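Feature request, filed as a ticket because there's no other form

It would be nice if the structure record came with a short human-readable summary line next to the tokens. Right now we just get the raw output. Example of a typical job, pasted below so the devs can see what we mean:
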Amino acid sequence: MTTFTQGKLIRITVSFTDQESGAQVDPDPLSFLFSLGGTTTTYDYGIDAELVRDSEGIYHVDISTSPDSGALYWRFEGGPVNQDAIQGNFIIQARRP
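Raw output as currently delivered:
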């Protein structure tokens, strides 16, 4: 599992593609969820500015690793149009002097 130091801004970028053609596609609707310290946060594309569309099929979210530390779990999920889900996790290591 990847480890980041507490206080870092982390960008999570994903690319959605059509399974048959390989072309980039936009899932609709699209949500990003992440859990840290027992709290789950959801961002919905078109509603929450944190979920950004860079180009067709490519999206990103920036997550601040302050003030919490521990395991962070994230997931992009979209559909039923161009249905897909991509998830991952990483560790935020507590700040040390």
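Something like this underneath would help us a lot:
The chain has a mean pLDDT of 93.
The chain is about 0% helix and 60% strand.
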